[in-house]
């Protein structure tokens, strides 16, 4: 049988761990959102285009969904799936 002191210890530790988890998750979401906003704003200032929506909505998506939106943003704007913005040179004759 579980002792009363062990239950009391869990009763104080578990809520603290859950609160710590949510604070850490909020910090990660905000950090991802700031990074996406900086990259998207720089891309816009340099004349680049964005897929689907502008930097503000990408930032909001990163703030709400965290890593899922960041990975999606990266795939659409930075990976090889994004393609190249400059036109391809014609093949040598």
Structural notes for this entry:
There is one protein chain. With 93 residues, the protein is mostly helical. The chain has three helices and no strands. It has one domain (7-79). Helices cover 69% and strands 0% of the residues. The protein starts with a helix and ends in a 16-residue tail after the last helix. The radius of gyration is 22 Å and the shape is elongated.
Note the main attributes of this structure.
mainly alpha; elongated; 93 residues; 69% helix; 3 helices; single chain
Helical coverage, percent range = 55-70%
Q: Could you say which overall geometry the principal axes of the C-alpha atoms support?
A: elongated
Amino- and carboxy-terminal Cα gap: 84 Å
What is the strand tally? 0
Structural class: mainly alpha
Backbone CA Rg: 22 Å
The unreliable regions are none
Largest sheet: none
Roughly what fraction of the amino acids lie in strands?
Answer: under 5%
Whole-number total of structural domains: 1
Task: Quote the average pLDDT.
Answer: 86
Q: What is the string of SSEs from the N terminus onward? A: HHH
- Total helices: the number is 3
Summarize the structure.
By secondary structure, the protein is an all-alpha fold. The chain has 3 helices and no strands. It has one domain.
Furnish the topology, listing elements before pairings:
Layout: H1 4-45, H2 55-65, H3 67-77
């Amino acid at each position: 049988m579980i002792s009363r002191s062990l239950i009391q210890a869990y009763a104080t530790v578990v809520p603290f761990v859950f609160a710590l988890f949510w604070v850490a998750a909020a910090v990660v979401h905000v950090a991802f959102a700031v990074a996406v906003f900086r990259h998207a704003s720089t891309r816009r200032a340099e004349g680049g285009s964005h897929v689907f929506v502008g930097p503000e909505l990408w930032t909001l998506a990163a703030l709400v969904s965290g890593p899922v939106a960041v990975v999606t943003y990266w795939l659409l704007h930075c990976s090889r799936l994004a393609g190249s913005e400059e036109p391809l040179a014609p093949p040598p004759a």
